[in-house]
Design a protein that fits this description.
This protein is an alpha+beta fold. Among the domains are: 86 residues, Distorted Sandwich (Calcium-transporting ATPase, cytoplasmic transduction domain A), CATH 2.70.150.10; 151 residues, Rossmann fold (3-Layer(aba) Sandwich), CATH 3.40.50; 122 residues, Calcium-transporting ATPase, cytoplasmic domain N; 69 residues, no CATH class. It has 24 helices and 30 strands. The longest helix has 36 residues. The chain is elongated.
């Protein structure tokens, strides 16, 4: 027996030095922790000749602590891995060519070369070249993205096939990757309500357990019951009631969640925003730059008085080339894409707020709004114009000598991921609302296209704010998704503000609680799914810890528990279960099958008849260009066949309306 006790002491000294050291440090800081409880139980076990069990209990506890550290480090190391994604060196362009230098020495405005197969060292804008880049490390997007001159590239992107020269726009400490890592660090400090409660609970719980264990040891003995039996049970109660698993139940799941979200290209500014998703019942959206790309495009062209579409575009483009209006630039760009001639314009004049006019080959042409052309006493096709406006497109009219030649309709381009997002939100039980400063008809059109529940147009920032207030009175929780400065007040007032990082302003990013890197709206569904899974895991962890602890405490009091069982199962076992359950968050995968943008966007800009040389724009359906499939054009939503989206069967034959010959995309 003596030899066994001596060996037990030796085992405890060698295996539990770390636990003892931490217990002394905790005590010096006037804290009663699980480490102190275990040391008291281990030492006290020798006084009732149960040293072997006490040593075994401390050994198991030390192993559990080490496993917890390893598992927690695995989660936290993901932040370090994020920072290591970008290379340490960069090819800096100098007067003598490219020189390899540390990335941290490169300044904003410097030019850096990126060879095929190299990772981009710093955020920048392409100054020369074009290539496909794998941005999966930053945005979570598995499909490589084609980038060309003027496009932004992120540090840690992998260059696929061509040499690029980029102008650096952010230094190494301020790249998107660095911001992601920093955000995850800060977010860990921004604790959820559950986390705060459990920390506060553990602060009082541990001393209560110590006092309860002492009472279990003393009171039965005073009543004449066996001192050794009840002293042993008090020690077991001390061990089995350690709150390790309970205190780990929330933070580890949150760390795993924050890291997983960051890997998916989603920045969450705090654990409390993961918890907040449980209260959200409605998602409100801005339109321009959020559900749409914020890029104006010609939607359709109506012709009158024997005019041809190519002539309308050519004349309007020639006049608009002298204008600075955004809509005018859209028409000019389209004229270039169609390779149509630009005519010389004389007597050009801007009629502010209405339109423009100018002479081409001696004839005066007018381009502008319906109101402008009406003032010139034109006979207008009111039914056509009303249908155009109702459809949510902007009509631009072209005429000469009181004869209307055509109407060019302009609209914003819908994001590919927008219908998937709205369908996904509805499938998950959320209401959807569109709140925009754009025309009500445009908002109605987008709302109908996406099947949004309510659409509010022509809202100024203060009106958007009031709409959020109204929604908060109606729903338990409101999430707002936006990107512009005018969205910042609504994002701040909402219960959960989400910024779309591809087009978001600095103030929007500062105000938002969640930032989606890039423009993939599906990431909002990913955030919801991971957040809900995290909250589910936290509940599982908490209830498992409580049920096991209470059950083992009851078994201890009635005498069916031993020290090593209390630690091996009641403490170590539950803690490991909580750890492993939290790590399953990393296994989440969004079910949607990614579609390459090449399948949705061809390089073709128009349809042309080789026989009669008729040129026309590629028709749109559901807010984007239709896509060629065989000898037909089909709606792009037909390609996005998925459980997350209802497809569209719209199709058009590729035949010239004038000579019925086959049309080609060029």
């Amino acid at each position: 027996m003596l030899i066994a006790q001596i060996l037990a002491i030796a085992s405890m000294v060698f295996s539990s030095s770390g636990v003892v050291k931490e217990a002394i440090e905790d005590l010096s800081e006037k804290k009663i922790t699980a480490n102190l409880l275990m040391v008291i139980a281990g030492v006290a076990s020798f006084f009732i000749l149960h040293g072997q069990e006490g040593a075994t209990a401390l050994l198991l506890y030390a192993i559990a602590e080490r496993l917890e550290e390893v598992t927690a480090d695995k989660s936290r190391n993901a932040i370090k891995e994020l920072l290591e994604l970008a290379p340490d060196d960069a090819l800096l362009k100098t007067d003598n060519g490219y020189v390899n230098v540390p990335s941290k020495q490169v300044k904003v405005g410097d030019f850096v070369g990126i060879k095929p197969g190299m990772k981009v060292p710093l955020d920048g804008v392409i100054a020369k070249g074009s290539s496909y880049l794998d941005e999966s490390a930053i945005t979570g997007e598995s499909v490589p993205v084609f980038k060309e001159k003027g496009d932004e590239v992120f540090a840690a992107s992998l260059n696929s096939d061509s040499f690029l020269n980029i102008e650096v726009i952010r230094e190494s400490t301020n790249t998107i990757v660095a911001q992601i890592a920093e955000s995850v660090k800060i977010a860990q400090q921004n604790k959820s309500e559950k986390e705060k409660f459990i920390e506060k609970f553990a602060k009082y719980y541990t001393p209560i357990i110590l006092i309860s264990s002492i009472l279990v040891m003393i009171i039965p003995s005073l009543l004449g019951l066996n001192f050794y039996d009840w002293f042993y049970r008090g020690l077991v109660l001390l061990v089995v009631s350690c709150p390790c698993a309970l205190t780990l139940s929330t933070p580890l799941a949150n760390i795993a969640s924050l890291t997983k979200q960051a890997r998916e290209g989603i920045l969450v500014k705090g654990n409390k925003f993961i918890e907040k998703i449980q209260d959200i019942e409605v998602f409100a959206f801005d339109k321009t730059g959020t559900l749409t790309e914020g890029k104006l495009k010609i939607f359709d062209i109506f012709t009158y008085n024997d005019a041809r579409k190519s002539d309308i575009i050519s004349i309007a483009g020639s006049l608009e080339a002298l204008s600075e209006h955004p809509i005018g630039k859209t028409i000019v760009n389209h004229t270039k894409e169609l390779d149509l001639p630009f005519h010389a314009v004389d007597n050009f004049e801007v009629i502010k707020g209405k339109g423009i006019k100018g002479k081409i080959d001696g004839e005066m042409f007018y381009v502008g709004s319906q109101k402008f052309i009406e003032e010139l006493n034109y006979n207008l096709p009111i039914n056509d114009i009303e249908n155009i406006v109702t459809s949510g497109t902007i009509p631009i009219l072209l005429g000469k000598q009181q004869h209307l030649l055509g109407i060019i309709t302009i609209r914003d381009v819908l994001r590919v991921s927008a219908p998937i997002l709205i369908k996904g939100l509805k499938k998950r039980g959320y209401e959807t609302v569109l709140i925009s400063g754009d025309n009500q008809n445009v908002c109605n059109s987008i709302g109908t296209c996406l099947d949004i529940d309510q659409a509010y147009g022509e809202h100024l920032p203060d009106q958007k704010l009031q709409e959020i207030k109204n929604l908060k009175q109606k729903y338990r929780g409101v999430a707002m998704v936006g990107d512009g400065i005018n969205d910042a007040p609504a994002l701040a007032l909402s219960d959960l503000g989400i910024a779309i990082g591809a087009s978001a302003t600095d103030i929007t990013i500062e105000t938002a609680d969640i930032i989606v890197i890039g423009e993939d709206l599906k990431k909002i569904l990913t955030f919801i799914d991971i957040a809900k899974k995290t909250n589910k895991k936290i509940k599982q962890n908490i209830w498992t810890s409580i049920i096991v602890k209470v059950s083992f405490a009851i078994l201890t009091v009635i005498g069916f528990m031993t020290l090593w069982l209390a630690v091996g199962i009641g403490d170590m076992g539950v803690s490991l279960l909580v750890l492993l359950n939290s790590l399953t968050i990393f296994r989440y995968k969004f079910v949607y099958k990614e579609i390459s943008m090449e399948e949705l966007e061809s390089e073709a800009k128009l349809v042309i008849c080789e026989n009669c040389q008729t040129k026309d724009i590629i028709p749109q359906h559901h807010g984007r260009d239709m896509v060629k499939k065989g000898d037909k054009l089909i709606c792009w939503k037909n390609i996005l066949s998925s459980e997350e989206l209802e497809t569209c069967d719209e199709e058009l034959p590729l035949h010239c309306p004038y000579c019925q010959e086959k049309l080609n995309l060029v």
